[in-house]
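Good morning,

Attaching, inline, the backbone tokens for the sequence recovery test we're adding to the shared suite. The designed sequence is right after.
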């Protein structure tokens, strides 16, 4: 894939952001799909798969990175606030992020590393055991992206981004006031990954954190304080390269219940 040309010129050639294009539901791709019928079209049959060996001799690790971030999509973004042991604030987005459990609330964060050069956020979490995780929405994506800047250690991304630190209740790192959903969290465990080609080299750190309390914008959550409205949250995700994704369309599909489905003749026939 070719590198981007001069980006200001490239972006100017594209359509303006359509703020009116907001969340809506559609039907599923095939409303007539029936049990046992497989994919909803046969286009996939006209293409072959190629095998990629991530450890193939001569294949640089960066190719695995490019492959994975363009394949594992869309990825939620953990916008992490941390404070170093000497009190320096840090704010940065990470798309190696997800939830792993709800009772207790458990979240995972992945940090790429090279040798001893771990990211400030990772170092801060490992040293202090505290962080906040904030969900990025459309209304502050530009500021959040600026926090991905490759600044030297100790630079305060809060000042560079113009975002607003809000006091947390149980941990020292502030949460992002602009975020509609923020999590105060503590470190539970971590694991350092070693290179397969050079076992002496650290290549990343997995952090497991437990959510302690949440901060939710009142207009985004329902009256039962149980579910957020995606049309108001306007979450942003990461795709491949430097591409972000909007969440503006979806469809619903009920999960099948085996006890009900097994009574259908067509299901029984498939399992005979």
């Amino acid at each position: 894939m070719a590198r981007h040309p001069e980006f200001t010129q490239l972006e100017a050639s594209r359509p303006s952001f359509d703020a009116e294009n907001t969340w809506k539901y559609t039907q599923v791709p095939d409303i007539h799909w029936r049990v046992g019928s497989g994919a909803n079209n046969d286009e996939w049959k006209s293409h072959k798969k190629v095998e990629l060996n991530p450890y193939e001799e001569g294949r640089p690790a960066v190719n695995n990175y490019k492959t994975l971030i363009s394949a594992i999509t869309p990825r939620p973004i953990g916008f992490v606030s941390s404070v170093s042991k000497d009190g320096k604030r840090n704010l940065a987005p990470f798309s190696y992020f997800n939830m792993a459990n709800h009772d207790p609330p458990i979240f995972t964060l992945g940090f790429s590393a090279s040798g001893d050069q771990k990211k400030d956020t990772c170092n801060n979490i490992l040293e202090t055991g505290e962080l906040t995780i904030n969900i990025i929405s459309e209304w502050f994506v530009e500021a959040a992206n600026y926090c991905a800047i490759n600044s030297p250690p100790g630079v305060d991304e809060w000042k560079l981004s113009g975002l607003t630190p809000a006091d947390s209740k149980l941990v020292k790192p502030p949460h992002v006031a602009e975020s509609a959903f923020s999590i105060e969290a503590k470190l539970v465990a971590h694991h350092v990954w070693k290179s397969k080609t050079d076992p002496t080299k650290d290549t990343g750190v997995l952090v497991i954190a437990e959510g302690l309390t949440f901060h939710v914008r009142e207009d985004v959550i329902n009256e039962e304080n149980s579910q957020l409205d995606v049309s108001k949250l306007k979450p942003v995700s990461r795709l491949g390269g430097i591409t972000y994704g909007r969440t503006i369309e979806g469809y619903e599909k009920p999960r099948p219940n085996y006890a009900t489905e097994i009574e259908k003749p067509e299901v029984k026939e498939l399992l005979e």
